[in-house]
Amino acid sequence: MPIGHEISEPAPRFAGRVGLRLVHPRDANVLAVLLTQNRGWLTQWEATHPSGRGSVPGSVPMRPIIKSMRKQLRAGTGVPFVITYDGEIVGQLSLAEISGGALQSSQIGYWVSQHVAGRGIVPTAVALAIDYLFEELGLHRVEICIRPENAASLRVVEKLGIPYEGRRASYIHIDGQWCDHDCFAVVRDNIPPELSAALRRAFEV
């Protein structure tokens, strides 16, 4: 599918107990509760506006936010997923900055509730997302940017064998300050063995 126009609603994708599906307005209450319960777990990694404007995630109605997120599909710039585990929503994964033309790339961002952390959910969800970007959208490159202090997220790219490209200084405003991020990226014609193995396991289930 060429990028640069509306993206069709993706079908849910599953690998054993882990699933990815497009976020819906009906998910608003569940996501609001998760965001509220995980304030201490997530705040240190969340993007903030340099001006100080903005609201605390979970403190404002989620339904309008979800509708705004879904507009990315119509613009052809992003795909907002929820991550499920045994059918229960446990986090979110967003495909952003989807570009066509000579770039053909996207970025992945994610969070998962602390109560299910460490179960291999995020690596599986990221593998499913990368497969979707390469096989369904036909992109060339996928990028994940992670704060050097975020050991849990660094383990995700390590498990999938996604190569390190370099550090971006003062890249994103996080939790009230400009923060460095380490960049990891994979291209369609050079899939790391660890990622290939993760995808095989996912689709053998």
UniProtKB/TrEMBL annotation:
<dbReference type="Pfam" id="PF13302">
    <property type="entry name" value="Acetyltransf_3"/>
</dbReference>
<keyword id="KW-0012">Acyltransferase</keyword>
<dbReference type="GO" id="GO:0008999">
    <property type="term" value="F:protein-N-terminal-alanine acetyltransferase activity"/>
</dbReference>
<keyword id="KW-0808">Transferase</keyword>
<comment type="similarity">
    <text>Belongs to the acetyltransferase family. RimJ subfamily.</text>
</comment>
<dbReference type="GO" id="GO:0005737">
    <property type="term" value="C:cytoplasm"/>
</dbReference>
<dbReference type="InterPro" id="IPR051531">
    <property type="entry name" value="N-acetyltransferase"/>
</dbReference>
<dbReference type="InterPro" id="IPR000182">
    <property type="entry name" value="GNAT_dom"/>
</dbReference>
<protein>
    <submittedName>
        <fullName>Ribosomal-protein-alanine N-acetyltransferase</fullName>
        <ecNumber>2.3.1.267</ecNumber>
    </submittedName>
</protein>
<feature type="domain" description="N-acetyltransferase">
    <location>
        <begin position="18"/>
        <end position="180"/>
    </location>
</feature>
<dbReference type="InterPro" id="IPR016181">
    <property type="entry name" value="Acyl_CoA_acyltransferase"/>
</dbReference>
